[in-house]
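INSTRUCTION: Work out how this chain folds

Fields: amino acid sequence; protein backbone structure tokens

Chain under study, with its fold:
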Amino acid sequence: MRLRWVGPTIVVLIAALLVLDAALTTHTIRNDPALSGKPSTSSSPVTAPSPISSSRSNSPRPNSTPVPTVPPSPETTRPQGRVMVEAVDRDHVWRVYGGECDGAHAQIQRSDNGGRTWLDIPSPLPVITRLQLRSTDEAFVVGADSSCRPQLRSTTDAGAAWAATSDPSRAWYIDPADRHVFNSPGAGPSRPCQDEKVLGLAVTTVGGARILCGDGTVRQTADSGRSWSTMGQVPQAVTMAVPQPDVETTYVLRHSDGCDGIEIVALDRPNQTVSCVPTPDHLQEVALTIPSRSALLLAGEQLLRSSDLVSWTRVDASGPTSSR
């Protein structure tokens, strides 16, 4: 008699737990800025140095479908394609070598000590054109699958596992197959740089973003990409960055005859050099991120740090310590 009574009770308890788990999961998705499309807010606010400031953007909502990761490319050299660097704070940094549809696969690395050592993370996509960190464990990437079709993948455990989003149309990203094409949440694929490639992207608000075109023109939108206006132009530009968490200044990185490396200028003062950063010879793919008082510049294998965008120090790195 006792066994007959206990069995149904266990079933009822399990059913109740499943209902509670589903409710908690739904609550988490609805209230997580990284998944809900709301700008993210940090639990420990940071203050940017004085001309530096920006606002996090909307992020597409992933589903829970697990996806296989792409094995690292056997080549010892870094793949071609976009170079990206993002930081949550001084210690937690990610870098991506984006790969190309007809070339080597993308490579992702994560550091938990400010870039002194790196952990290899298997890439969920062969090509990556955008990296966005939401916290020390949460991130998403936009890129392409093996057929070079746009895809979005997200992680909530620092890259140990990734989830697939079948439709990346809600994301801002440079098209993996054609860098003349840019996708925005409000307009879908378009050519805001017309005949020029899109070299850089900075998402500034839920509906706002800035892009750098191949001719050095910086354009912005405030209506999710339905219309664009020109902010200015910096010849020989290679990429751009907008500081977080404010968006007052746009910084452009360019090659200059007077700088043996990468020159950083403010878009509204292109004739005034903020700094000249020594880098390997004439790199075309570099990345700058300014999440707080500590800006980071990635040039090839070199990671450099600055507290004011003027003086830069190379971060000593011993290379990957382990891999997932």
